[in-house]
Amino acid sequence: MKTVKLAWNMLLADGAKSLLLVVQIALFIVLFNICTGTIFTANRLTEKVQNSRLKNAYYCNALHEESMPDGFPTYSPQYFTLEIGSYALCADVYSEAYLKDSPVRLQYGKMCSALQKDECLLSADAARLLGLHAGDTLYGKSDDREIQLKIKGVLSSDEQLLKFTVSGNALSLKMIYEKPVQTVILSDASSLDGVQLSPYLGCVVYKPDDITAAEMQQQLSPYADLTPFQSMLTEEQSENRSIVSLFASFAVVLFLVSMTGVFSNSFLSLQFHEKRFAVYFLCGMTKRRAAAVLALRNSLLALISCLFGTAVYLCIWQFSAIDEFAFLPGMLTLSWVIVFLTVLISAVPIYVRAERLTPIRFFKEGIS
After folding, report:
1. For the residues of 300-328, what is the DSSP string, one character each?
2. Residues in the chain with pLDDT values less than 50
3. Measured between alpha carbons, how far is 158 from 181 in angstroms, rounded to an integer?
């Protein structure tokens, strides 16, 4: 405990220099995790399209006619309002083929690509609102029809699904994918007799294998406004590279500035406290313990910085409207490890100097 107290007193005595380092390292923690979270989210969203039939499909946001020519398979989910107690939730009904082609990600890293009869999924906020979990039974009502569904799973809190309510010409993947809000997901295998289903505005149009993309655009232009998923995918990848490069540059600069500051701060702290260490040596403190005090002081600096940076990052992730980055506990832990190792390693020359100085030289070189 005496070693901890000595290290803490040294940290407090350094005052403004330590506070500045805490802010710098905390900013590195925030930028590092936003950068890695952005990379993860970007890759996951593009892989969702890249690894499915959507890669060669088109998003149709406005039908000029009630129907398209034969030979162009289209798909759009339907929806209805599901009343559960005093809450009214949106229930989206997907086809079995669509769920198989575009699996959804559940909590704890699980995936779901099929729903059996009378099974459903809940969005994360809907599960919290209703107080339900995977394996529970959901009781609801729609159009005076009682509906009973078994909850197969709960969607991951940062899972994004293709929405079909977007219109416009300059569309992007970020615009047509979003986190589902208070949503129940079913498949068309569910027993929904007597429930009035409504169609969404948009739909997915799949390209037949026997025609080219240009021919498809030409044939369907009188009927619908089409946006290729491939073009949105390319644009998304380019934009994500730019964003990630910007965040990474800031993070690297902050990291180098912070670690340089840790080294100089440790050196100045040793000089500032040299007379104090001289007294400690004369009273029996070993040089090894003096180095341990300095190491513990830097560890406390790293711990405070990591805690502060993590708190700021979690606030940004939880309370902001930004959906472009995910919370990755593994990357957060890695950023802590990087900070602790670098803070301790960068001050090794200072520990060596503390062990080499004699008490008399401490008194002669002391500046405090």
Report:
1. HHHHHHHHHHHHHHHHHHHHSS--SS---
2. 366-368
3. 11
